[in-house]
Amino acid sequence: MNTNKTIHVVSSTDDNYVPHLGVMFVSLLENTQQHRKVQLYVLNGGITEKNKQWLQKTVAPYQTSIQFLDVDPKQYENAIESRHITKASYYRISIPDLISDSDIEKVLYIDSDTVVLDDVSKIYDQDISPNIAAAVIDCGLHDRLQTLKVSEDANYFNAGIMLIDLKSWRDNNITDRAFDYIKNATDEQLEYHDQDILNTLLCDKWLELHPKWNAQAYLLLKQKKLEFIDEIKKQEAFSKPAIVHFCGEEKPWLKGYVHPYKKTYYHYLEKTASGLEQGASAKNI
């Protein structure tokens, strides 16, 4: 294993989530080994040129830059939006088409509403074959595959953090199958958007990661017993999360939101560049 290889990290955002993406990138770059090169990509859900420049300015001190990937929105015209989820969430389905360089074997996808607290090379360097992806069980929806009538015993993963084997994804034609799913699915089958799609298509083709790599609110706020997660791993994730995921409608930048890592979010926000365009600001609390 060549641990000097570039780590390829992808996220997705529209203009409103730009400051939060900046937080995620800074926290990731601050906690990744200094000798590892990191290449960043953003699935562009509609970002102004000024805010693109702000993101580039934010990551420039870490000797890296961002490639913005433009998605064809027509491909997602039938995708259902609801709650706080926009069509930009679905765009991760297109990652293996948009990053077509055959030398790039895998990418780490991380949602913008996260804070990274550990070195992501620890999961990026894992060999996940013969699986297509690696992810963490969804703490709130782990049994959703039964509702979707996909499996009675398999677990459902949270798609907010995924390590993706690009070749395996392409070989299994996941993107085209996902578009077919969108066209033919009922509203119930898309209640959790692209996450439902990916769990259906990758049901028996994903590797389970330690829950600390996607420490969700259900775990960190002890909102459920989570008996389906190993007790030791659960305690490790609670006491020392590697990636904190502010999943759900409540976010650390919203007034009144209580979360043990809210101050951590603001710590990294202060390290982002100044001059964020009006209308896409996290400092409006």
UniProtKB/TrEMBL annotation:
Coiled coil (UniProt feature): none
Sorted UniProt keywords: Glycosyltransferase, Metal-binding, Transferase
Record bears the keyword Hydrolase: no
One Pfam family hit: Glyco_transf_8
InterPro entries hit by this protein: Glyco_trans_8, Glycosyltrans_8_dom-fam, Nucleotide-diphossugar_trans
Molecular function as annotated in GO: glycosyltransferase activity; metal ion binding
Key word Transcription present: no
Domain of life: Bacteria
Protein name (Swiss-Prot/TrEMBL): Glycosyltransferase family 8 protein
Source organism of this protein record: Niallia taxi
Lineage start: Bacteria, Bacillati, Bacillota, Bacilli, Bacillales
